Amino acid sequence: MAKIKDSVRQIVAKVLECDPKTVHSASGLTRTFNWDSLNHVLIMTLIEEHFGVEINESNIVELSTFEQICNYLKLCAHV
Questions:
Q1: Tens digits of residue pLDDT in 15-34
Q2: What is the model's pLDDT at position 1?
């Protein structure tokens, strides 16, 4: 799980142009500076590419925090 969190943290920080140390479990859409709907779609697209998964539209909407995204990817890894 640590590797997933580190990768997601790096992706989020890259898109939001922030220090990865500022990305934490509660970071998310409308909760974090610059994490708006457009950047959320970009984050999710980069996550799909990085992890080789396809996230359907309803999950993209529901996965609105760093922690939710990491937990989802953890479940995908076990499938």
A1: 999 999 999 999 999 899 99
A2: 79
* Distance in angstroms (rounded) separating the CA atoms of residues 21 and 10: 9
C-alpha 2/C-alpha 38 separation (Å) is: 27
Return d(Cα 34, Cα 43) in angstroms, integer: 12
CA 26 to chain centre: 11
Q: How far apart are CA 64 and CA 61, in angstroms?
A: 6
Q: What is the mean pLDDT of the chain?
A: 95
28 phi and psi, to 5 degrees? Answer: 180, -175
**Cβ pair 36, 28 in contact under 8 A:** no
